[in-house]
Amino acid sequence: MNRLIFLLILIFLNNCSLNEGSKIWTKDQIEKNKQEKLKKVFNENKKIIEEFNSELRLELENIKTNNKIIDNKNNYGSQSYSGDFKKIDSLKFKKLKNINQLNYHPIFLNEGMIFFENKGTIIKYSEDNKILWKNNHYSKAEKKLFPKLYFIKDNQNLIVADSISKLYSVDINTGNLNWSKYNAYPFNSNIKKYNDKFFVIDYKNTLRCYFINDGSECWNVKTEGSFTLSNTKTSLILVDNKIIFNNSVGEITALNIETGMLLWQLPTQSSNIIYETYNFQTSELVSDGNSIYFSNNKNEFYSIDVNSGSINWINKINSNISPIIIENLIFTVSNEGFLFVIEKNNGNIIRITDAYIQYNKKNRSEIKPIGFAIGNKNLYLTNSDGKIIIVDLSLGDIIKIEKVSGNLVSKPLIFENNLYLIRNGKIDKYN
């Protein structure tokens, strides 16, 4: 009898698999799908390191610009900025410790700005750059850990998640504490809010949902972890009734925003990635409402359907900085300094121009792009050598290269027709 039961179990296990209609993609399925969806621009099986259609002019005269600084889809598009890129002001703060990239964003207000400095002190600046208040809500022991803060604004309150596992809310007008909570692990993502809830991801690849009014947890969903700490910040977006996020091992997960119920999940890397996450880097997720776009430093640029999690297309582009969507075009910059223009719907690359063309070959291999923003007509790209490159978006020509920092610098941020760059110790404002 026992042998019969054992035989039946073996037969059952050998015939079990995820069917074609399953919303959970297996790693074998994703590898097969990646090969089918891959768009080849050149026949060589190597990273693209040459210009392509560099003489092609893009008709961008009638594109719409916006003034968005917060977007639940991370879809900022072309923003209203056509200035001369002349520095007009600087805000000072105490230098941050133990950082290798400045991927922390201030909160822009109509009457000023909020940022943080060394040891986790939050500062509110007035419109004329005076300090309105400075508050620190950390103990002596916590200050020694030099917390790094992620912000989101909710009416007159500021919600803060940090790199040492603390979560709290302060009054924007006074800086006084509303509530404070602790998580088991540090946080490692931007924050998004929806109605009375907000969402953030911790270092264990767990998405956590909290209530805004008191910081109590409404639900959490844990995804596959890694054996090493990731060297990149994770990302999440809100699209209709879905919250979609990535993790440090390359999984993309979609959940019902109210309940946390799993809608679909897509692994984009092999199982070996759990041993290699320190070197694995991916861009932010960006969506136009129909598809999700992102890339990584393993030479993969993805378009994924929002509703099903199926792959629309994959292209060979080596980049871990956030792409920007403008109408039917996607713009990104590869880690080798090439500006790519991609057709959004089919993934075809229509132009590649060399943004690092004025660098000598010996030095350019040591330079990496930090991030970019797009204004009315130009693209503004910051780099690891502390320089900003201004590119004519229509023609792809280099307009200007300027030194803006001696070391770390953030990606450009545009707000109310001004461009901002964060250096360690300063926020520079350009007209």
Tell me what you see in this structure.
This protein has 431 residues and is mainly β. The protein is built from four helices and 33 strands. Strands 1-22-21-20-19 form a five-stranded mixed beta sheet. A four-stranded antiparallel beta sheet has the order 2-33-32-31, with no helix packed on it. It has a four-stranded antiparallel beta sheet with strand order 3-4-5-6, with no helix packed on it. The longest helix is centred in the N-terminal third of the chain and has 14 residues, at 2-15. 39% of the residues are buried. The model is unreliable at 1-22 and 38-45 (pLDDT under 50).
List the helices and strands and how they pair.
Blueprint: H1 2-15, H2 27-37, E1 38-39, E2 87-92, E3 107-109, E4 112-116, E5 122-126, E6 131-135, H3 140-143, E7 149-154, E8 157-162, E9 166-171, E10 177-182, E11 192-194, E12 197-201, E13 206-211, E14 217-222, E15 236-239, E16 242-246, E17 251-256, E18 262-267, E19 286-287, E20 291-296, E21 300-305, E22 311-315, E23 324-326, E24 329-333, E25 338-343, E26 349-354, H4 361-364, E27 369-374, E28 378-383, E29 387-392, E30 398-403, E31 413-415, E32 418-423, E33 426-430
Parallel strand pairs: 1-22
Antiparallel strand pairs: 2-33, 3-4, 4-5, 5-6, 7-8, 8-9, 9-10, 11-12, 12-13, 13-14, 15-16, 16-17, 17-18, 19-20, 20-21, 21-22, 23-24, 24-25, 25-26, 27-28, 28-29, 29-30, 31-32, 32-33
